Amino acid sequence: MKDHRVVTIARGYGSGGKTMGKMLAQELGWNYYDRELLQLASEESGISEELFARSDENVKRSLATIFRVQKDCLDGNVIPPDKDGFISNENLFRYQARIIRRLAEEENCVIVGRCANHILMGQPHVVNVYVHAPHNYCVRTVMNLYSLSREEAEKRILETDRRRGEYYRHFTGHDWQCADYYDLCIDSSRMEWNQCVEIVKSYLKCI
Q1: For the chain, which domains are there?
Q2: Rounded to whole angstroms, how far apart are CA atoms 124 and 82?
Q3: Strands of 5-54, DSSP E
């Protein structure tokens, strides 16, 4: 049986990566997962979805934690409800990782964020995409989408990308913007978003 195919998308804020992910999933007839993963992880663990959402923004840097979580992510270990650390950020991440691995085994899908490229690292049926764009392009996009001033848009981009970078480094030990961890790096400012989607679709035909 042919393996299910998965596209993971990491993206700079304002680059359009999330929109592209939705467009790609719709055109392929695949399921799309972003914050939906929080709901699935909540249902499996019995932990409040709100706690999963909070863990996205609250990570404490520690080399010991980085390497421990990295190992557990690959092993699929989670802390049971009767043990200390059940609702720790690290255990919440492990539950999300378990969901991501299961989805990759069961269906074709597009997964945005959540360190999915690292969790599914080395799987031949997975295409990892990083969507980025020059700062000014992202600023204009955010200003137009949310009716923000330039100062407000720049602040939101800086804070969001910083948080994403810290989250990725905390749970993987790596830099989320490093091209080594992706099959495709797309500058969304150089073409329309639907053209970016077509590039990913063309690449999928090769696997």
Answers
A1: 6-201 (3.40.50.300)
A2: 37
A3: 6-11, 31-33
